[in-house]
Design goal:
- The complex is a heterodimer of chains A (about 290) and B (about 290).
- With about 290 residues, chain A is an all-alpha fold.
- Chain A contains 14 helices and no strands.
- Chain A folds into 3 domains: about 110 residues, Alpha Horseshoe (Serine Threonine Protein Phosphatase 5, Tetratricopeptide repeat); about 50 residues; about 80 residues.
- Chain A starts with a helix and ends with a helix.
- Helices cover about 80% and strands about 0% of the residues of chain B.
- In chain B, α3 packs antiparallel against α15.
- The chains are: A mainly alpha (about 290), B mainly alpha (about 290).
- At the A-B interface, α1 and α2 of A face α3 of B.
């Protein structure tokens, strides 16, 4: 009996040791990162009550982690945590230094670099140096045009001018954004960027309160993308058709605009799964038209 | 201790069982094997998201749980989930058989016979099918109770009262759920208490064993319920910790979930050892008396 128990114990220990030795994953790094993150969360609860050396020590720990595993996929997250620590202390210049490190070390990762560059711009915004911020945002646009951050940047700039109530700048920013989104939508039809560009374009027209153009662009999204990988039937119903209805009825006050789009869609796509839903929508829009 | 005494006092029966276990630790051997199997499976699950086991498990984990569960600390949630899921197969395939082995050992001790593991395994193996079916019956009834009680929980959830009797009922049902399950599990253990001893000692088949079990249970159900419930008190601290995993994780890190899982299973195995010993001792005493 004792022999069997000893064998069982040895099997368990041997298996544990073997699997630990063979393990090439970043488990240890993930574990350490998690525990540092917990420390960060404690500091973030009341940043002013934390002594200076706690911040410095935490940064040092994060740096040590990067040194330990320079190729780790967690690398950008670690840098981001360091930036967050400096951000808690409102040391924006240091935050930018960390972001520059990300740009240097992960230059081949466009998505990461675009977001990082945008974050650099935001630090200038926090400091109130808007000219610098806009310069960086322009860099995001120029250097990473086909990333989520790059594509969203013209609208971000529009939003900034709207918030700061600079009417002339807003008009110009809207014009730039419109051109940009039209170009992308034309150049990349049937892609995620194509549909995103059209979505942003409809937002540009919303800013201008150009309701007819809003409906036209949404109609274009429906015709080009309904049922494709970029627009599920549920999204087509909830995010596009409902919005077209709302704008046509409430803003343009002419449901026939929406009806025209749907009728055209049904004629062009006679076997489309959305057709029943669109026909019901047409009927209810016509019903409301007759009631009026 | 006379069979009359054992029949009257649950504590006396438990004390006798405990002293039998202490004087004959071989009774614990089958439960040690169950512990080994559980720890072995736990190790596999624990290392599943990591190389080299990740080659096989990674697609499964990603498909059913998401990529996050491959990484720290979510991997511990996976360990808990999967380990709970394998409990029923382990119980049916291994624990049923090894429980039978424990009864063979207790019977041999009672008859002053020498114990050889080969003979123990051979005897239990000859009744393996019946042992598995018996375990399946108790698992089935327990799952039935769980299903029924989940309906009660669902009903309690829709009680809107924030005070008064309905609110109290809601609180009792929701907060007391783990303890209700504990009481149900004791009920199920008692309901099939004599099935394994009858299969092993009387060498009966499952249906005959079930009929004899209910016959034996007549008039001694609540006595046995007390006998089985008392050791279960050992599990209450584990249950209290299990219902406060957020606190545990925050205080001691996600690793504490696995520690609790292992500790909980050791406690359950010890309780099972006491149950098997007490029930078999009681069965043998009752048989002697008649």
């Amino acid at each position: 009996m004792k022999k069997i128990l000893v064998v069982c114990f040895l099997v368990l220990t041997g298996l544990f040791v073997a699997l630990t030795v063979l393990d090439k994953s970043e488990y240890g790094i993930e574990k350490r990162f998690w525990s540092l993150q917990k420390r960060f969360e404690k500091i973030a609860e009341d940043p002013k009550a934390v002594p200076e050396r706690s911040y410095a020590d935490l940064v040092r720990q994060y740096r040590r982690l990067i040194k330990k595993a320079p190729e780790s996929p967690l690398g950008p997250k670690i840098y981001l945590q360091i930036a967050k620590i400096y951000s808690l202390r409102e040391e924006h210049a240091k935050v930018r230094d960390v972001f520059e490190e990300i740009l240097k070390n992960y230059a081949e990762n466009d998505v990461l670099c675009s977001v990082t560059l945008r974050n650099i711009g935001m630090t200038y915004e926090k400091e109130g140096v808007m000219e610098q911020a806009l310069g960086v945002y322009q860099r995001v646009l120029d250097e990473y045009p086909l990333t989520e951050a790059g594509l969203g940047m013209p609208l971000y700039i529009v939003d900034y001018y709207k918030r700061s109530q600079k009417a002339d700048k807003l008009v110009e920013a809207l014009r730039v954004a419109e051109t940009r989104y039209k170009n992308v939508a034309d150049a990349m039809p049937g892609t995620q960027f194509g549909i995103e560009a059209l979505r942003h374009l409809s937002t540009v027209y919303l800013y201008r309160q150009d309701w007819r153009s809003v409906v036209d662009v949404l109609g274009q999204i429906l015709v080009q993308y309904a049922g494709s990988g970029q627009l599920s039937p549920a999204d087509a119903k909830n995010k596009v058709v409902r919005f077209i209805n709302a704008v046509s009825v409430q803003q343009i006050k002419d449901p026939s605009v929406a009806i025209g789009i749907y009728e055209k869609f049904i004629v062009q796509n006679p076997k489309h799964p959305l057709n029943d839903f669109l026909q019901n929508t047409i009927d209810s829009l016509k019903g409301s038209q007759n009631n009026e | 201790m006379t069979s009359k005494n054992l029949n009257k006092h649950p504590v006396a029966l438990l004390r006798t069982s405990l002293s039998v276990i202490l004087s004959h630790p071989s009774i614990l051997f089958p439960f040690c094997i169950v512990a080994f199997i559980q720890l072995f499976v736990l190790e596999i699950i624990f290392f599943a998201p990591r190389y080299p086991l990740s080659n096989f498990f990674e697609p499964i984990i990603t498909r059913f749980h998401g990529e996050a569960f491959l990484h720290y600390p979510f991997n511990f949630m996976l360990v808990v989930k999967w380990f709970q899921k394998v409990q029923i197969p382990i119980h049916l395939v291994f624990t049923s058989f090894l429980g039978g082995c424990a009864v063979v050992i207790i019977n041999a001790i009672n008859n002053d016979k020498t114990i050889t593991m080969k003979a123990v395994f051979r005897r239990a193996m000859s009744a393996y099918v019946h042992l598995v079916v018996a375990a399946g019956c108790s698992v089935g009834v327990m799952l039935g109770f769980t299903k029924l009680f989940s309906l009660v929980i669902k009903r309690a959830f829709i009680i809107r009262s924030t005070s008064g009797i309905y609110f109290m009922i809601k609180q009792v049902v929701l907060k007391g759920a783990p303890y209700f399950y504990l009481l149900f599990s004791v009920f199920v253990v008692v309901l099939f208490a004599f099935v394994v001893p009858i299969i092993i000692i009387e060498k009966k088949k499952i249906f005959a064993a079930l009929v004899d079990n209910f016959r034996c249970l007549w008039k001694s159900f609540w006595f046995l319920y007390a006998v089985c419930l008392l050791p279960m008190i050992l599990y209450v601290p584990v249950l209290m910790l299990k219902t406060n995993t957020q606190f545990l994780r925050a205080q001691f890190g996600p690793e504490s979930l696995v520690v609790l899982l292992v500790a909980g299973n050791f406690v359950v195995l010890f309780i099972e050892a006491i149950h098997y010993t007490a029930i078999t001792t009681y069965y043998l005493a009752k048989k002697e008396a008649t």
